[in-house]
TrEMBL record:
<dbReference type="InterPro" id="IPR003593">
    <property type="entry name" value="AAA+_ATPase"/>
</dbReference>
<feature type="domain" description="Sigma-54 factor interaction">
    <location>
        <begin position="145"/>
        <end position="374"/>
    </location>
</feature>
<keyword id="KW-0804">Transcription</keyword>
<dbReference type="Pfam" id="PF00158">
    <property type="entry name" value="Sigma54_activat"/>
</dbReference>
<dbReference type="InterPro" id="IPR058031">
    <property type="entry name" value="AAA_lid_NorR"/>
</dbReference>
<dbReference type="InterPro" id="IPR001789">
    <property type="entry name" value="Sig_transdc_resp-reg_receiver"/>
</dbReference>
<keyword id="KW-0805">Transcription regulation</keyword>
<dbReference type="InterPro" id="IPR011006">
    <property type="entry name" value="CheY-like_superfamily"/>
</dbReference>
<dbReference type="GO" id="GO:0005524">
    <property type="term" value="F:ATP binding"/>
</dbReference>
<dbReference type="Pfam" id="PF00072">
    <property type="entry name" value="Response_reg"/>
</dbReference>
<dbReference type="InterPro" id="IPR027417">
    <property type="entry name" value="P-loop_NTPase"/>
</dbReference>
<feature type="domain" description="Response regulatory">
    <location>
        <begin position="7"/>
        <end position="126"/>
    </location>
</feature>
<dbReference type="InterPro" id="IPR009057">
    <property type="entry name" value="Homeodomain-like_sf"/>
</dbReference>
<dbReference type="GO" id="GO:0043565">
    <property type="term" value="F:sequence-specific DNA binding"/>
</dbReference>
<feature type="modified residue" description="4-aspartylphosphate">
    <location>
        <position position="56"/>
    </location>
</feature>
<dbReference type="InterPro" id="IPR002078">
    <property type="entry name" value="Sigma_54_int"/>
</dbReference>
<keyword id="KW-0547">Nucleotide-binding</keyword>
Length: 448
């Protein structure tokens, strides 16, 4: 990991030390958080993730062990935090500091230190942490992209292959599948990882602000343009630009976007001077590729430009036991956040999740687990704790006609049988009592 991308927590009861380290690091790292009271550690770790923690060995606190640093180091490790820990110690406590290395600390620094030495120690620790993470056989890409299913392992493999290149990527997938996490993972594993990652939700940009937001503007170019402003392309220069919901932009907007991508130059509104840009482009949409191929909706030449490599994220219902893996991850996350015991799923809870289709995908599972953790009474989560309540289910509805009910039943049955046979159409058709051709017609009918 590079120093510039790091989020660092400093825990020391000496305000002067906190101020000095914060001033030293604030221009070197992404974020510096300071804390005088180690009793707030668990709350801080539940609130956000840190790449590195600078931890004092001695505090004026209620823990009179003589080696408070070791106590709090243990608490950090027990919390599940992946942060590397550097101990801050006085010369007389070096023996304790050495012992802290055996307890899991990455390194220690002795007060008073030379600033250059402290920065070098932090850099070396982050670099070693990055290598360890890269070599670990853990089914995780980025912070939340967790999975052990075959389809997700294929995606992880593809990310490792394409991330170091500058190929333009198109990410396809239903809402809530984690397209933004895939985009960030590609950036984090790329050669541009120490440069900006800029996300733009194109679905939120109206026609009137599209050009200004993406390409920037000059002062006075339109009403309200009170100063020169760089657009998102310029902000991402040298790094990665992630255009989310690209399937939602109009044909006119597509023409303007295509021109910039072809020329690798932007011209701010109100200016005639083109500005060279160097970006890695990642786009995402929840539309099927077949809909993007419709020239009445999307320009083919733009598809070719943005789609050097395509990544299709499967819906959660097609990821098998990843549902339980993710559920445990979110349950642990929210138990830590809300200061509750680590939950355990009973058999019926796991079975309920496996049979639910999760129309909202991973995002729905995350919200479901947060609600379950908050409302649960004990350490065990039961099927009754898992409440799947899509927003639309709370609205009054007219009774569905029988034909629609039957269609829904048929679609769900087909999905379950296909999942049972891991996507093997021949076996699924045989179990359903259909020919392959008849099954394909139904897949087309229900857009499966």
């Amino acid at each position: 990991m590079l120093l510039r991308n790091a989020t660092i927590l400093i825990i020391d009861d000496d305000t002067d030390v906190l101020t000095a380290v914060r001033l030293l690091l604030k221009t070197e790292v992404k974020e510096v958080v300071t804390e005088k009271n180690p009793e707030n550690l668990r709350w801080l770790l539940s609130k956000q993730s840190f790449d590195l923690i600078l931890l004092d060995m001695n505090f004026t606190s209620s823990i009179n062990t003589g080696n408070e640093g070791l106590f709090w180091l243990k608490k950090i490790k027990e919390s599940g935090s992946e942060a590397a820990v550097i101990m801050i110690t006085a010369y007389g406590d070096i023996n304790l500091a050495v012992r802290s290395l055996k307890e899991g600390a990455a390194d220690f620094v002795v007060k008073p230190w030379h600033n250059e030495k402290l920065i070098e120690t932090i850099k070396a620790t982050l670099k070693a942490k990055g290598k360890t993470s890269a070599n670990a056989a853990v089914p995780v890409i980025g912070k939340e992209m967790i999975g052990e299913s075959e389809v997700m392992n294929d995606i992880f493999f593809k990310i490792e292959k394409i991330a170091p290149t500058d190929a333009n990527i198109l990410i396809l997938g239903e809402n809530g599948t984690g397209k933004d996490l895939i985009a960030r993972a590609i950036h984090q594993h790329s050669l541009r990882a120490d440069k900006p990652f800029v996300k733009v939700d194109l679905g939120a940009l109206t026609e009137s602000i599209f050009e200004s937001e993406l390409f920037g503007h000059k002062k006075g170019s339109f009403t309200g343009a009170s100063e020169d402003r760089a657009g998102r392309f310029e902000a991402a220069n040298g790094g990665t630009l992630f255009l989310d919901e690209i399937g939602n932009i109009s044909l006119q907007q597509q023409v303007k976007l295509l021109s910039v991508l072809q020329n690798r130059q932007v011209t701010r509104l109100g200016s005639n001077d083109p500005i060279n840009i160097d970006i890695r482009l990642i786009c995402a949409t929840n539309l099927p590729i077949a809909e993007l191929a419709n020239e009445n909706r999307f320009r083919k030449d733009l598809i070719y430009r943005i789609n050097t490599v395509e990544i299709e994220i499967p819906p959660l219902r097609k990821r098998g036991d990843d549902i339980i893996l993710l559920a445990k991850h979110f349950a642990s996350l929210y138990a830590n956040k809300y200061l509750k015991p680590e939950p355990v799923f009973d058999a019926k809870a796991s079975e309920k999740m496996r049979h639910y289709l999760f129309p909202g995908n991973v995002r729905e599972l995350q919200y479901t687990m947060e609600r379950a953790v908050i409302m649960s009474e004990g350490e065990e989560l039961t099927a009754n704790d898992l409440i799947f309540s899509p927003i639309e289910s709370s609205l009054p509805k007219d009774p569905e006609p029988l034909e629609l009910n039957l269609s829904t039943l048929e679609k769900n049955t087909i999905l379950k049988v296909i999942e049972k046979h891991n996507g093997n159409i021949s076996r699924a058709a045989k179990e359903l009592g259909l020919t392959r051709t008849a099954l394909y017609r139904r897949l087309s009918k229900y857009d499966i």
